[in-house]
Amino acid sequence: MTVFRPIQIFALVPFLFFACGGGGGGGAINIAAEDETTLAELSQGELDSVCDQIASEMERLTSRYDEEFCTVMSVAMTLFGGPEACEQMMDTCSNGFSQPPDDEECFNTAELASCDVTVLEFETCLNDSLDATEEMLKAVGRDNPDCDDGIEALTAYEQYSVPCTEELEQRCEALDMD
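Below the sequence we write its predicted structure tokens.
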């Protein structure tokens, strides 16, 4: 049985705004390292490349699903302030809401020094998360939920979360997939 955890919808929000090598390939994120390489073995440049790829893919998704992003963020606000907070966020989004740039490194070699997650596992999970995010946004576009049914909508969209993020975070505490 799936237990609804409100924070899970926010695990997707960073993805709503976040050179083929030896990696698994086939998805938007391709890490230029062998599949068996651990994240601890990657250079900061390789990690920065992953961050750039995530940012590029998120830019593609946000430009394609702008209204759906706004709807997800607005509906999620019902968790904190009910339908009124949702309506306020909808108004903010319709007036040109944008995610502020994040100047922090998204992954850091020093913090990942003891991480045993492999490139293949990480790359696959990132691509699965991006795919799930896009599928969720398509569903939001079809369903067009409103602020009065925010909690129900969030529960319905939980099916688009991917379990690999929690698993990888448990194995590597410094890895923040949210």
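The CA atoms of residues 1 and 146 lie 26 Å apart.
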